[in-house]
Amino acid sequence: MPEQESIDVVVVGNGVIGTSIAYELARRSPETSIVVLGPRHRSGAASMAAGAMLNTFGEITKYTLMSPASQAKFQLCRDALDRWPSWLELLKQESGVADVDKSLSSGTTVLLNAKSGHLDDENYAALLAALAKFDEPHEEIAPGDIPGLDPLAEARPLRAVHLPREGAIDARAVLSALETAATRHGVRFVDGEAAGFDVDRGTVRGVKLVDGTTLSAGTVLLAAGSFSGPLTGVFEEGSVPAMFAGKGIAVQTQRRAGVGFQHVVRTPNRSGSCGLHAIPLGDGVEYLGATNLLFSEPAHTPDIGMSEFLVQVAREQLDHRLFYSDVISWLVGNRPVAIDGFPLIGRTSIDGLLITTGTYRDGFHCSPVLAQLVVDDLLGVGSLAEALPHFKPERRPIESMTVEEAVKEFAFHGVSASIEAGLRLPSHTDTTVLEVFYLQVAQRYYEAVQHPIGLSPEVLLSIVFDPDHADHRITRYLNAVHARYA
């Protein structure tokens, strides 16, 4: 591609969100020239490792409906749940991949067991309350009636609720079909990495690549997931929420014993992470996932600790016969996580530069609706600022809890995570001693921060156990936020 070729729109990021937006724009505006920029291997991308659970109510926690911003995020997920059937049908027609939905698993069953403390109780109760409030179809069922479920006796579920409208699909199959459909509509995919943006007098002129070339464009959309953080350095420090990479590990297995799962089986979200889940992909292939740890930079390889944890909890809590399953592959992906846990979606103060990232665990699920909303804005038939006012990219971080609440919640999640990992205490004490430890850790951190805000347990965890947290980039970011937005 010539160095200075002019393009109408460059999408930085070739994951499910960037590719969906490019496809939707090309479909609705055939005269628009579009390039999607991203490394062909997609190493570390969330889309390549996602379980792709199409869950809205299955993702409910006690926080989901507690603030206007979280309610807006929940509504975005509900809209996506309604959109997926027609989106898949469109992909089948326009990609020519007739079996793109072959691995579609209809139905999600959420389990309540006693392996993660009272956090599961609270989130399960919030799930049932939301199902009733929004009149979502569901059925409480006997755990013994769930095909494939055979946990160890001490991890047997107490309750279960089945959500017939939710489920999962093979993320890699959908992404491949999306790329095929987009290419058929004239979208070009460039194997490369963005180093920054070409900005002149407040207007974006293109994208600079790490190989020294430039893609000139009138509009640039940043949708690079967990790799977006460094590229937001084009804005003044503190103006855009700091980003983390939420490392998740999963394993695909081949069933060797037992009938296997017939639909998604999962726990509520727990301990600053996604819930433990098993997803059938067809022909005895199953996807097992559960992990989420936040880091400053994306990771590309699985680690022993979380890999061991995943296998342990899946075998204990879902099916002890997974002991006999063959490992097909280990998957590593990085979720894009803003410091406040909310997406960054909209136009920016740099004319022509838009951002769509920070979707955390909901990016794949919400991709059809995000594509529609972004393209509506690009074509002038809608406004991201009006559709998603809470999530504008340049903002003070949204505070869902006070510092005092954050400290208590950090300790609560820490105890719950320890229980799930197999905590055993001497008979003369209880979890209070561990709770006090976590309280002290969080309090010490906040005492050293000049301008603190309430942070989620997973964000706090990533900071307080960093040996250099006294000079942590988040501390510097919070100081910049205070200077900018005070």
What sequence of helices (H) and strands (E) makes up the elements? Answer: EHEHEHEHEEHEEEEEEEEEHEEEHHHHHH
Q: Which spans of ≥5 residues are poorly predicted at pLDDT below 50?
A: none
Biggest β-sheet, characterized? 10 strands, mixed
Indicate the proportion of strand residues: 15-25%
- Number of E strands: 18
Given the C-alpha coordinates, what overall shape results? globular
Give me the number of helical elements. Answer: 12
Distance between the termini: 46 Å
The structure class reads alpha+beta
Helix content: 25-40%
Look at the structure and give the mean pLDDT.
94
Radius of gyration of CA atoms, rounded to a whole number: 22 Å
